[in-house]
Amino acid sequence: MKNCFDRTPHTMKDWLLLAAGVAAVFAAADWLPGVLRGAGAFLGLLAPFGWGLLLAYVLDIPTRFFAKKLFGGRRGGAMAVSYALFFGALALLAALVVPQLVQSVTTFAGRLGAYEETIRGLLVWVQNTFGIDTATAEQLVQMVGTALQNWFGGLSHSAARAAADFVSGAAGAAGNAVVALAASIYLLSGKEALLRAARACLHAALPPRAAGSVLEICRLANKIFSGYIGGQLVDALLVGGETFVLMSIFGLEYAPLLAVLVGVTNIVPVLGPFLGAVPGLIILLLELPWKAAEFAIIIFVVQQVDGNFIAPRILGGATGLPGLGVLLAIVVGGAWFGIPGMVLGVPTLAVLAALLKQAVGAGLTARGLDENGEPRRNLPGGPQEN
């Protein structure tokens, strides 16, 4: 094969093969968009099964816990408790978020004029106090206010069409949700049988040493991912609960909505708390500045308590990554895959870092060196202790 690519064509057969190869490359390039569209459509059909796999993986964490602590190792009852908690959490979130969301949107739409006047007054104060020309900012405020009013007005005028689109989309989403739920139940209940079948296929396809290496990598990845995802979910629940309690104590508006938003975004490490706090700060700042200040203090206190006391005990050393590694995983994962990449980038990089650490350790051991590059003692070729 190497000689075929290195030598210059001489015979008619060589030129025909070269022409056929070039034609095949151009044909593949021409067919590639269609192949990618077909692959995308096929993956779209499999999306409910992917969500079912994700749900089964997440619910396997509490299922293993309940099976060990409550049901003597039996998974049937543990699965029932896990699904009951899952649907209970969904119902609670719906009861908290949906009414608050409707009320928040309605209130926000009704106060657009007041918000615009508040911002205009602030711009006038800035211009009179500091002598800064704010004409451009005033035009921008007017444009944004007009666009928002038109958008909310369009929502009210096209309510029938929006309702029809919502019903159609909800029907499709409900069908996909049913498929995902059924797939998750099947995967979770048949976990042991599916794992045995996967191990059997792996041993049949690969040599024993390679199969053992693949299984070891899978165990490492499962340990890191399950510890990280489970810890992040529990941490997000606690952060959202703390935010809701403190906002209720201080009597701040939109407490359920903003608490859920802060808790959900807290799943994204490092940047999540800020992503969840910014919308709340903007909304409350338009109401009264001191409310926004109270909300900022609440977020600061919650994040300090979480970062210094709660998260280290829940997550522990789930990833083993330094702060720079976590930030790198968030930036790269977010750039490539959006929010899911920001969430899953950290455990993915942790798995790669653990594998790299093992490879480096094996290489140093094979050369009789320690982590500083010095010869190990009591090894052939290294200095011997007396």
From TrEMBL:
Note the topology in the membrane: Multi-pass membrane protein
> Gene Ontology cellular component?
plasma membrane
Name the InterPro entries on file. Answer: AI-2E-like
Subcellular location per UniProt equals: Cell membrane
Q: Quick one: where's region Disordered?
A: 367-386
Instruction: For this UniProt record, give its keywords in alphabetical order, as a comma-separated list.
Output: Cell membrane, Membrane, Transmembrane, Transmembrane helix, Transport
Q: Which domain of life is it from?
A: Bacteria
PANTHER family recorded: PERMEASE PERM-RELATED (PTHR21716:SF53), TRANSMEMBRANE PROTEIN (PTHR21716)
Q: What is this protein called?
A: Predicted PurR-regulated permease PerM
User: Which source organism does the UniProt entry give?
Assistant: Gemmiger formicilis
Kindly list the organism's lineage: Bacteria, Bacillati, Bacillota, Clostridia, Eubacteriales
